[in-house]
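hey so i finally got around to running the thing on that chain from the lab meeting. sorry it took forever, my laptop kept dying and i had to restart like 3 times. anyway pasting the input first so we r on the same page abt which one it is
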Amino acid sequence: MPLATEEYLTYLSVDRARSQQTVRAYRLDLGRALSFWGRLKQPIGETGELNRDAVRAYQRHLGGAGLALSSRARRLQALRGFLRHALREGWIAEDLAAHIDIPKVVPHLPKPLTTREARQVLAHPHRPGEAGLRDAALVQFLLSTGCRISEALAVDRSQINSEGRLVVRGKGSKERMVQLTPDASRAVRDYLGARHDRVSALFLNYDRSSVARGQRRLSSAGARRILARIRRETGVEGLRSPHVLRHTTATELLTITGNVRLVQEVLGHANLNTMQGYTKVVDAARISAYDALASRLRGEPEAAD
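ok and heres what got predicted. didnt touch it at all, straight out
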């Protein structure tokens, strides 16, 4: 079973071009299933020993483990993918994946910053020096492009052209073109103009211990620390992660253009259904605006912005 699992994870990484984060999550979730089967009175250690009873026993185990619905669904999705691969490879004789019922998870609506909060974050004065210029450029870059933090941190300085266009590599190694706003381009130019190094990475790490280890490219953890500091200094509590800025970009673009397909292309979503969360946020804002209009026409006091 462990060998079969590793072969499946290699398939996900190489053939399906899944991200390292996805592969790590699958490894963890499948490891839990293997551990469960290994603790049965009649332990299962070979893929050929898997049967319907083993799959149902694991489903019952997850159902009684007090897990969040999303966690249970994720673990079962990982198992179903593995079992489908096992059937294709001839490791099992029966389609055991067909017997897995994955609970339907109600998607959480994204929680973007309000327009005023986004402006507040962009206008925040940063600390002096290269690190401060980097922080300003990073926030502008993320809000301008809607990139995932992993996409932004993988960008090299050579990718930035005079027109502010660049190609980023997203999930599944898919490339897409993104555009910097004039303000974002200016912030990036100011940052690069202050640097005197030859490091290829666009965003650098200035932490002494990281620099001593030769880790100059800014890490995701480092970016989160930057945004956490900005959250404390601005009081914008909604700035909980870099992904909030991605949600904000999507919502603002959708509000301005009303073009779901355009926003899908900007964010690099393969499935149009992924955009439903953003459209619901915009719809809710539209309803709220009409409610405010009705109150205004009735002469009621207006709520503070």
